[in-house]
Amino acid sequence: MTQALRPLVTALAVVGVLAGGVATPGCGYSLAGRGSFLPDYIQVIGVPMFTNRTKLFNLETQMTDKVRAELIGRGRYRIVPEATGVDAVLNGELAAVEIQPLSFTNQQLASRYVITMVARMELRDVRDNSVLWENPGLVFRQEYEAQSGNTALDPNAFFAQDLNALDRMTNDMARTIVSAILEAF
Fold first, then answer.
1. What phi, psi does 72 have (nearest 5°)?
2. Under CATH, which architecture does the 36-183 domain have?
3. pLDDT tens sequence across 94-105
4. Would the pTM of this model clear 0.90, i.e. be above it?
């Protein structure tokens, strides 16, 4: 091939690759967080207050609000707090929360904890009463450092950090639930 033809052949090869990419069907990949596997007729999703089977006060409100906010943030569906007059209903049950020490100081005081939450979730199509998505055993964990307390009974060593850890965990859990529902993971 001569030097004069080389740029022309290179340009034609680039145009051919680009044209082939446009002419072939899509591979099925899409940007995470923007797609949905839900049927097109689902426009309104009801998210009634989750059931709280734990001993943590107001956990159901915190978790339900975060899931609603995450669904609203995706922008495709109208989210309402009722289970009636909707196309689909997301029901949730917060089954258990445990806080356990992970490590100890030389004085045998807990210095690090893990908080674990177990939940059940189900998204049901109201029109044909079928389950669109469910996970009966969601488990989330969050570790945190204990504040330095003077004794094993010092409330400052425990209560301030576990609330922050619980808040981080419920944020992660809401994001994961909504991603699983909308992206069919």
1. -60, -40
2. 2-Layer Sandwich (3.30)
3. 999 998 999 998
4. no
